[in-house]
Amino acid sequence: MMKTYSLLSLLMIISWACVSCGTQFPETLKGDISLDGVKPYPLDTCLVIDRKLDSTPKTYTRVHQGQEVKFCCKNCVIAFEANPEPWMKKLKNSGR
Fold this sequence. Notes:
single chain, alpha+beta, 3 helices, 2 strands
Protein backbone atom coordinates (compact mmCIF):
# COMPACT_ATOMS: atom_id res chain seq x y z
CA MET A 1 0.00 0.00 0.00
CA MET A 2 1.35 3.45 -0.95
CA LYS A 3 1.70 6.03 1.81
CA THR A 4 0.38 9.56 1.15
CA TYR A 5 2.47 12.52 2.28
CA SER A 6 1.52 16.15 2.56
CA LEU A 7 3.51 18.64 0.50
CA LEU A 8 5.18 19.97 3.64
CA SER A 9 6.23 16.49 4.71
CA LEU A 10 7.63 15.81 1.25
CA LEU A 11 9.64 19.04 1.25
CA MET A 12 11.02 18.24 4.70
CA ILE A 13 12.08 14.78 3.53
CA ILE A 14 13.78 16.19 0.42
CA SER A 15 15.55 18.89 2.47
CA TRP A 16 16.74 16.33 5.00
CA ALA A 17 18.02 14.09 2.21
CA CYS A 18 19.93 16.96 0.61
CA VAL A 19 21.48 17.98 3.92
CA SER A 20 22.38 14.37 4.70
CA CYS A 21 24.24 13.88 1.43
CA GLY A 22 25.88 17.33 1.48
CA THR A 23 23.88 18.86 -1.39
CA GLN A 24 23.30 22.57 -1.02
CA PHE A 25 20.74 24.78 -2.68
CA PRO A 26 22.60 27.71 -4.28
CA GLU A 27 21.43 31.10 -3.01
CA THR A 28 23.91 33.08 -5.06
CA LEU A 29 25.69 32.70 -8.32
CA LYS A 30 29.45 32.83 -7.96
CA GLY A 31 31.29 35.48 -9.95
CA ASP A 32 33.43 32.87 -11.68
CA ILE A 33 30.47 30.96 -13.15
CA SER A 34 29.91 31.70 -16.83
CA LEU A 35 26.28 32.33 -17.61
CA ASP A 36 26.06 32.40 -21.39
CA GLY A 37 23.63 35.00 -22.67
CA VAL A 38 22.99 36.57 -19.26
CA LYS A 39 23.59 40.30 -18.96
CA PRO A 40 25.72 41.12 -15.89
CA TYR A 41 24.21 43.24 -13.15
CA PRO A 42 25.46 46.81 -13.68
CA LEU A 43 24.81 48.29 -10.22
CA ASP A 44 26.71 48.06 -6.94
CA THR A 45 23.50 48.40 -4.91
CA CYS A 46 20.47 46.23 -4.21
CA LEU A 47 17.85 46.79 -6.89
CA VAL A 48 15.01 47.06 -4.37
CA ILE A 49 16.34 49.26 -1.54
CA ASP A 50 19.56 50.68 -3.03
CA ARG A 51 21.72 49.30 -0.20
CA LYS A 52 25.40 48.89 -1.10
CA LEU A 53 25.96 45.22 -1.86
CA ASP A 54 29.47 45.22 -0.43
CA SER A 55 28.00 46.23 2.97
CA THR A 56 25.87 43.08 3.20
CA PRO A 57 27.08 39.76 4.60
CA LYS A 58 25.45 37.86 1.73
CA THR A 59 24.33 38.86 -1.75
CA TYR A 60 21.41 37.11 -3.43
CA THR A 61 21.43 36.79 -7.20
CA ARG A 62 18.63 35.89 -9.56
CA VAL A 63 18.31 35.90 -13.36
CA HIS A 64 15.16 37.43 -14.80
CA GLN A 65 14.57 37.34 -18.56
CA GLY A 66 18.29 37.09 -19.27
CA GLN A 67 19.33 39.83 -16.83
CA GLU A 68 21.32 39.12 -13.68
CA VAL A 69 19.80 40.95 -10.68
CA LYS A 70 21.35 41.27 -7.21
CA PHE A 71 19.76 41.82 -3.82
CA CYS A 72 20.96 42.51 -0.28
CA CYS A 73 18.54 40.15 1.51
CA LYS A 74 15.83 37.54 1.10
CA ASN A 75 13.07 40.10 1.70
CA CYS A 76 14.23 42.08 -1.33
CA VAL A 77 14.23 38.89 -3.42
CA ILE A 78 10.65 38.20 -2.27
CA ALA A 79 9.56 41.76 -3.12
CA PHE A 80 11.16 41.47 -6.57
CA GLU A 81 9.69 38.05 -7.33
CA ALA A 82 6.20 39.19 -6.32
CA ASN A 83 6.21 41.84 -9.06
CA PRO A 84 9.47 42.04 -11.06
CA GLU A 85 8.40 44.47 -13.78
CA PRO A 86 8.70 47.77 -11.83
CA TRP A 87 12.14 46.71 -10.61
CA MET A 88 13.27 45.73 -14.10
CA LYS A 89 12.04 49.10 -15.36
CA LYS A 90 14.07 50.78 -12.60
CA LEU A 91 17.15 48.80 -13.68
CA LYS A 92 16.63 49.73 -17.33
CA ASN A 93 16.26 53.42 -16.39
CA SER A 94 19.40 53.37 -14.24
CA GLY A 95 21.31 54.41 -17.35
CA ARG A 96 24.14 51.90 -16.98
